Amino acid sequence: MTHVPAPEVSWEETHQSRTVALNVAGRYGTLAIEILLGLVMLPINTRYLGASDYGLWMLAASVVAYFPVLDLGYGGAMERFVAHYRARREGAAISELASTLVFVFAAIGVVAFGVVVVIAWNLGPLFNLDAAQAHTGGFILQLVAVQFAAGLPFAIYGAVVNGFQRTFLNSVVGTVVALAVAAVNIGVLLAGGGLIELVGAMTATRMLGYLAYRHNAYRVYPLLQIRPSLFRLARLREVTRFSVYMLIQDVANKMNYMTDPMIIAAVLTTGAVAVWTIAQRLADMVLRLTNQLNEVLFPVVVDYDTGRHDARLRELLVQGTRLSLATTLPVVGSMALLAEPVVVGWTGPTYRPAALVLQILSVVVLIRVGSSTAATVLRGAGHHRLLALSNMAAALVNIGLSLLLIRTYGLPGMAVATLIPVTVRAAVVLVPVACSRVGISLWQFASAAVWPAAWPAVIGLGALAAVKGSASASLAHAVGSGALVGLVYGILFLGLAVGREDRIRYLGKLRSITGRPSLNASVREAT
């Protein structure tokens, strides 16, 4: 029998830099909508549902909150391998990976749902609920679990889209689904629906959104095939060698940034947990607002690494770090300087102690975002083991220091316990190893990536520090002062800190967002 070679897939990619700009803009658009809807919907839901039902809903959501770790790192691994085989023009491998992981995720979803059912049946004894609350809460919990279990297989389609560097398409779907869910939420409440009707309608709306993610996957890669016959144990073993470290990374992140309330509650009081939560939520909001660029660079790094484009990787590390710092420094600097009026203006004088915690966590955000491009380079260019294991080590040190410092220094000690390992990891592991990987010295990296973003912040934040006593007496003044610092920083950064070529490049990327990048896949029969 004559062997017929597999068909070769070719793509026609145009304007990759425009694609990155559009992906970042899409993520910011979705983030803005989510933040706005969160601010609007919370008081509406608490008013119509009441504290008891709303609390029951949040309890059910919190039970499932840790379940995303059950993807076992395969979600991030799938994105990495899609980008890898896309760069190698091996379309058959993409279909085999997708087919394999769809069925793996379906099996995980079934197991997860079974676990939730057991929890739902025992919700009353577990959380001291009366019979009516336990019945309603168990039903709500199962609805939330259905959404999670059904969404796991569809995550593969999202990974395909991201691996093809078309994240903006998923952002569009995410925005539309968020708006639709909010409309359904309001509609059910105005119609007099209760908690079960509300969660059921919202769950159905989100699950319909899964079909849109599937449509996007076939839109960017029409040759995608997902069939039982394409399931390959060899592909599962291949992707598992990467995913296990993504799982370690995910667990370490949760240990680093989600265990603090439990330690505080065990050592201090629930009131201290509330103070910490205020500061942590503000810091997390800043993190999300300033770290969107690095979220879309991963498939680009994989593409460059696969094609051995070291010069492009070096440029990506420098430009990515510079822009990350440029978007972060004025925001976290203003947040740190204006922490007290921001906290008091948002939550009242009772939570004034959160201001000092917020100042320390603002530095944590700066270190995390500033080193995120280096971490992305390591994750996509073959250093995922080092990345995951160093993150786990930092998490363990964080927990140990937290238990030690909280007893003497209280909540500020907790924040310092988070800052120390994050800073040491960035300075000793992430940045030096990433610079070594792309062939640039630490001095060259500091002068090209850090200094142009840093010195305008010194001027802008120095001026704010000089006048903040009179200009930041209220939340409105604080927001206005921070916006002014951002404007001054932007003028200094674009006008003086970067060269003419980079300035034209940055402004051109902003203008190019209005254009639409194209990617066409075709098959050429091998001869």
Explain what you see.
With 527 residues, the protein is an all-alpha fold. The protein folds into two domains: 31-246, no CATH class; 256-515, no CATH class. 83% of the residues lie in helices and 2% in strands. The protein is built from 20 helices and two strands. A two-stranded antiparallel ribbon has the order 1-2.
Q: Topology, pairings included?
A:
Layout: E1 8-13, H1 16-64, H2 74-87, H3 91-121, H4 123-127, H5 131-163, H6 167-190, H7 195-220, H8 233-258, H9 260-267, H10 270-290, H11 292-296, H12 298-306, H13 310-337, H14 339-347, H15 354-370, H16 372-380, H17 384-438, H18 442-471, H19 475-497, H20 500-512, E2 519-524
- Helix/strand order, N-terminal first: EHHHHHHHHHHHHHHHHHHHHE
Sheet with the most strands?
2 strands, antiparallel
Task: List the strand order in the largest sheet.
Answer: 1-2
List segments where confidence is low: pLDDT < 50 over at least 5 consecutive residues.
1-8, 522-527
Task: Give a summary of the structure in a few sentences.
By secondary structure, the protein is mostly helical. It has helices spanning 16-64, 74-87, 91-121, 123-127, 131-163, 167-190, 195-220, 233-258, 260-267, 270-290, 292-296, 298-306, 310-337, 339-347, 354-370, 372-380, 384-438, 442-471, 475-497, 500-512; strands at 8-13, 519-524.
Primary descriptors:
about 525 residues, mainly alpha, 2 domains, two-stranded antiparallel sheet, about 0% strand, globular, disordered N terminus, disordered C terminus
